[in-house]
Amino acid sequence: MADKKVYRASTTAPVNIAVVKYWGKRDPKLNLPTNSSLSVTLSQDDLRTLTTASCSAAFPPEDTLTLNGSPSDISGARTQACLRELRARRAALEAADPSLPKLSEMPLRLVSENNFPTAAGLASSAAGFAALVRAVADLYALAADPTELSLIARQGSGSACRSLFGGYVAWRMGGRADGLDSRAELVAPASHWPQMRALVLVVSAAKKGVSSTSGMQQTVATSGLFKQRVAEVVPANMDAMEAAVRDRDFARFAEVTMRESNSFHATCADTYPPIFYMNDVSRAAVRAVEAVNEKAGRTVAAYTFDAGPNAVIYYLEQDTEAVVGTFYDILGATTDGWKQEAKALPGKGVPLDEALAGVIKGGVSRVIMSGVGEGPAKTEEYLVQEDGSPVVR
Amino acid sequence: MADKKVYRASTTAPVNIAVVKYWGKRDPKLNLPTNSSLSVTLSQDDLRTLTTASCSAAFPPEDTLTLNGSPSDISGARTQACLRELRARRAALEAADPSLPKLSEMPLRLVSENNFPTAAGLASSAAGFAALVRAVADLYALAADPTELSLIARQGSGSACRSLFGGYVAWRMGGRADGLDSRAELVAPASHWPQMRALVLVVSAAKKGVSSTSGMQQTVATSGLFKQRVAEVVPANMDAMEAAVRDRDFARFAEVTMRESNSFHATCADTYPPIFYMNDVSRAAVRAVEAVNEKAGRTVAAYTFDAGPNAVIYYLEQDTEAVVGTFYDILGATTDGWKQEAKALPGKGVPLDEALAGVIKGGVSRVIMSGVGEGPAKTEEYLVQEDGSPVVR
């Protein structure tokens, strides 16, 4: 009689926030980018996806994915590409060693949960695909080299390849048509520069903007300035950013981070029709960061914005008072998400122009406090029970 | 006994709104630009500067300028450069013909008035310098070739050189170090395409942004994308715009106008620190124009933004219902500046998304309706009386 055993593996994976931005694909099917990018992996204590991958001959024949408690469609080409690649690698192992159970032939039951509100508008696809790929790779007992797995995760969501590492991570664009050299590499582990912190100001957008998937291709197709970003601006920023991380040079890290965010949003504005992700609240956050740095007399904070109005503000632990204090003074009474360390800081921040503070107070709905953290990790916390039934919470 | 006669000349000069933008100087002293530009001259019935230039041996020795009723400083290098150039040309005439009165040696009394509120935030320096140069040139009986005078006005304010012509005007950047080939030329007179209209949505800015004079040089110095705009984007847009005007092709005129505005504001956003002239109200105007074009099934309107949040919307007279009607439906009840033709249009516009309409209604303080018009013109309306005393109103 057939093997009714339920096989399981659970992994957590982190969110990453790029400081050199990914924007533009040279091959949309394989998610091959027009330029390399670099990101900071954020701590999973604050932001993580937990995914349990399970399979069993006893499961109904269709693969399934449950995301935050609801069934999720996995028929999409990107998810299918990831599962196909993972199954092929498992099948190769099984062919080489007939004693292995034929997991590659069993239906998959995937269950995934984020520990942060989707409403936060943080790209959860990176953590999601990284966790999915890593969990299935563990289930299948595949060689778990993150760079190798990044080739698979990249096909699910480009930025997901960077979430397979902790610390400071580069996605090398590569040059091959098959994408085998377009993968993530560790630039430096979190332990190299553990003082890096991130304060996320969650800005409520009037309505969802253009999706990054379609937005970036509109930019590639229509922006007259984009060529220059890809050919000269990003390569120079990659070099400068790797040097800044290597030397733990925050002033340099901050300038490149801010210039990169500006360059990215400039090419969005140069898209036809123009794409606007930042709003007046986002711009007020830019001015606030500039004011904090000016009052501090040195660079203590850096802003960056992804495909949405949220501000991510990088700073070093030792500058928490000036940076977090400033925003806590404005937002502490009206928004959630503050850690204990922030609640000890009233009055420690930089006094901001009243109109500026008003715009920020009126537009920020919550904050998230985090910092540089580790990559995906195996866990004994399962979202599928030993008998294969979902964990009910 | 000395000649106590008061010599006078009066001129009006128009505002112009660029559709290919001037942003960046290669020589800040001579106002030599990094790229050519092209503008539409707006009708002086709606927007004009009236300037009377007078001189007399009986005046106190210092040149004076009265602007909208208040004394204005003319010691600035730009104003001085214009007056020096004009006096030199007059002195040459006087040297060649000793019978001419020695106006070049007499103090100047200049009085200037705009027929539009400075609060409108429309760059009035272009009309101001064009009127000043043209009025003094008339006072001095200089050869009044506008292209020749544009070399002088350019030194007062770059865009002023384009206000010496009506209709559709190009400012050729030129290549000479002395700037003698950096001047305005007529692309087509207003009569070539008289149907061109402009609706200005005056947006109240929270506070004055970076001045264009300093802003454009910050962009030249810090934007990594600016090179590309100057080297490739603008030259292509100049060619396309001249063809669009020549062929009276509004769809093409509109696309180049909108792409140009986007490209210009993109390089501002790419400046470090970033320069933001457009705000959420400006962006709502962009979306409104896109909606009007989409509902019309063809391009009937084009937006452009200068160094501030005001939207200038170009359209053709025959599309007044769709374009003006749409904004009158939103703003007619709450803002001034509408002409009779607009007041006949309630309900004739395109229904806009409610949130979008709300942002526009909340942020537009007044409108100005105008259209393509003629260049500077001599007038018998004087702001200085025959006895040299200012006209009191």
UniProtKB/TrEMBL annotation, chains A, B:
**Any one GO CC term of the record:** cytosol
The terms under GO molecular function for this entry are:
ATP binding; diphosphomevalonate decarboxylase activity
- Specify the superkingdom: Eukaryota
What pathway annotation does it carry?
A: Isoprenoid biosynthesis; isopentenyl diphosphate biosynthesis via mevalonate pathway; isopentenyl diphosphate from (R)-mevalonate: step 3/3
Matches recorded under Pfam families: MDD_C, MVD-like_N
User: Which EC numbers characterise this protein's activity in its record?
Assistant: 4.1.1.33
Q: Which residues form the Diphosphomevalonate decarboxylase-like N-terminal domain?
A: 13-183
Keywords of this entry? ATP-binding, Lipid biosynthesis, Lipid metabolism, Lyase, Nucleotide-binding, Steroid biosynthesis, Steroid metabolism, Sterol biosynthesis, Sterol metabolism
Q: Which Gene3D superfamilies match?
A: 3.30.230.10, GHMP kinase, C-terminal domain
* Keyword set includes RNA-binding: no
> Is Transmembrane helix set as a keyword in this record?
no
Q: Which reaction does it catalyse?
A: (R)-5-diphosphomevalonate + ATP = isopentenyl diphosphate + ADP + phosphate + CO2
Signal peptide residue numbers = none
Q: Give start and end of each Mvd1 C-terminal domain.
A: 198-377
Q: What class of enzyme is it?
A: lyase
Q: A GO term (biological process) for this protein?
A: isopentenyl diphosphate biosynthetic process, mevalonate pathway
**Family per record:** Belongs to the diphosphomevalonate decarboxylase family.
The name of this protein is Diphosphomevalonate decarboxylase
Q: What does UniProt list as this organism's lineage?
A: Eukaryota, Fungi, Dikarya, Ascomycota, Pezizomycotina
